[in-house]
Design brief:
By secondary structure, the protein is of the alpha/beta class. The protein contains nine helices and ten strands.
Length: about 325
């Protein structure tokens, strides 16, 4: 059964229409010039048929006619990507429109769609950390979990970067030593870390081979934190609490694990650089399996079209005799 690798788009239709229109214009112009000489220019007819034929064959080759099946080996490689998302109250700060968390969610949804060959998991945290979505290839499930992220999903408390890293380490320790996988961590936070004793966890993470890429969300100027019932969050002195981006803890985490630090704000969007860094992190081969794929036979119409084009060039036709 004949199948096509690509469907006809408006670009192919437009190109063929322009070719036919211009060539028909050339044909009728030749007949008009031949008329005063009592000639009809009919010799151009077979050239017209020849050129229409090889243009159609070129279009057929472009669409990729596939007939039959062939068995080909496929080497599957991949990596594990853990998304660690800060859901503390400071992520509701509106110094990035509409809020830090909403901006991060939109970017993470695009990131997930770019790595469909890799397993991606989601961990949320504030003072404690929870696995919101285990490592999965299921893009639709992951996108659903990302869309539901909000700060009230975790108990209220100050941000502690240690629990999500310990949670990832626990998952890494469960992997069999015979089949290690390249692992990347994407830590999304404003960097306000109120935890203690992060160094032991960081040393273990560096030894595991996992690389941490930190994404600082927010601005150095910061903003006040709105309350759900109106007004703003106040500090112990009764003043409006201002949350600011703290890049130093995030930069230190990235440097000690061989990763990189990026920032995301209205003025500085380094999210594409984060995606490129993850793309350069090579996955490890998992298995080699054989799959059946359609055999693309574009070479045959292409070869025939090139032969007809050569014939068109070699054979000349005197259209008008003087």
């Amino acid at each position: 059964m004949l199948n096509w690798a690509y469907s006809v788009s408006w670009k192919e239709v437009a190109a063929l229409s322009i070719f036919f229109a211009l060539y028909l214009g050339f044909f009728f112009r030749t007949r008009r010039l031949a008329a005063p000489l009592n000639q009809k220019g009919w010799r151009l007819g077979w050239k017209l048929t020849l050129r229409f034929l090889y243009m159609g064959l070129l279009g057929m080759a472009l669409l990729g006619p596939a007939y039959g099946l062939t068995r080909q080996p496929v080497r599957t490689t991949g990596k594990d990507v853990w998304l660690l998302v800060d859901l503390s109250r400071s992520m509701d700060a509106p110094d990035i429109a509409p809020t830090r968390l909403q901006k991060a969610k939109a970017e993470l949804a695009q990131l997930a769609s770019r790595f469909q060959a890799d397993r991606i998991g989601l961990i949320v945290f504030a003072a404690e950390a929870y696995v919101q979505c285990p490592l999965t290839y299921d893009q639709s499930a992951l996108q659903l979990f990302l869309s539901t992220l909000q700060t009230n999903l975790v108990p209220a408390g100050t941000t502690d970067l240690t629990p999500p890293l310990e949670l990832v380490l626990a998952r890494l320790n469960k992997l069999p030593a015979t089949s290690p996988r390249a692992t990347a961590l994407v830590l999304v936070s404003d960097g306000e870390d109120f935890g203690e004793n992060l160094e032991p966890t960081l040393r273990l993470l560096a030894r595991s081979g996992a690389r941490l890429f930190a994404l600082g969300v927010g601005t150095l100027d910061g903003s006040r934190l709105p309350r759900e019932k109106g007004g703003f969050v106040r500090d112990a002195r009764g003043r409006d609490a201002v949350s600011r981006l703290s890049p130093t803890p995030l930069q230190r985490l990235a440097e000690q694990t061989g990763g990189r630090y990026f920032e995301l704000s209205d003025r500085r969007d380094e999210f594409p650089l984060l995606v490129n860094a993850l793309n350069r992190l090579e996955g490890q081969t998992e298995q080699v399996r054989t799959v059946s794929v359609a055999d693309n036979r574009y070479r045959y119409p292409l070869a025939l079209a090139l032969a007809l084009m050569a014939l068109d060039i070699l054979l000349t036709v005197r259209v008008i005799k003087l």
